[in-house]
Write a structure and sequence with these properties.
By secondary structure, this protein is an alpha+beta fold. It has three helices and ten strands; from the N terminus they run αββββββαβαβββ. It starts with a helix and ends with a strand.
Length: 182
């Protein structure tokens, strides 16, 4: 009687393990092995993809009362609709542009601005011309004081629905003035 009980328990445990393994493989069948790939972009050179070509023209940092303000000046080429911010056929690129400070706080810009400070409208973003864009990021000093790697401006571009490429431009935030790292 005891032997029959242990046999049934063993069969039940093996069935649960086999069922769990089957379910795991069924659920993860279509998952991309590397959903985000990082690619470095160098200043003053066109980078990005055909969906969102861009060139970082300048980057600077200045001290403000509550920390630092990093300003990125870039030129955006002709943009194609993509799943920016996980919304299909979206051109709200600002959702995928970040100032990343490793082991610190990553923050978004306040918005895409013209060099004169005026914000881009939805209509202007849809025009098929190059866009001269200024991004401003606020950084608190503690978020980069103890970093171990350089900060970077990152632009996450959805190449396919299941594949993203993070284009990164390295920044040197140790001083005020120009902060582009080569």
């Amino acid at each position: 009687m005891k032997r029959q009980y242990y046999t049934w328990v063993l069969l039940l445990v093996m069935g649960i393990i086999l069922g769990g393994t089957w379910q795991f493989h069924r659920v993860n069948r279509g998952v991309t092995p590397k959903p985000v790939m990082e690619q470095r972009v160098y200043p003053q050179r066109w980078g990005g993809s055909q969906k969102a070509p861009f060139k970082v023209l300048a980057a600077s940092q200045r001290t403000v009362p509550d920390g630092k303000e990093v300003t990125i000046h870039l030129l955006l080429g002709k943009l194609q609709l993509a799943n920016y911010g996980f919304h299909s056929k979206n051109l709200n690129l600002i959702e995928d542009m970040w100032l990343n400070i490793p082991y610190g706080i990553s923050n978004q810009s306040r918005g895409m601005q013209h060099p004169n400070g005026r914000y881009y409208t939805e209509k202007e973003l849809h025009r098929s011309t190059n866009k001269d864009v200024t991004l401003r990021f606020s950084v608190i000093p503690n978020s980069y004081r103890y970093r171990l790697q350089p900060a970077r401006f990152s632009f996450l571009v959805p190449e396919r629905p299941d594949q993203f490429v993070k284009y990164s431009v390295m920044l040197d935030l140790t001083h005020d003035g120009s902060v582009l790292a080569s």
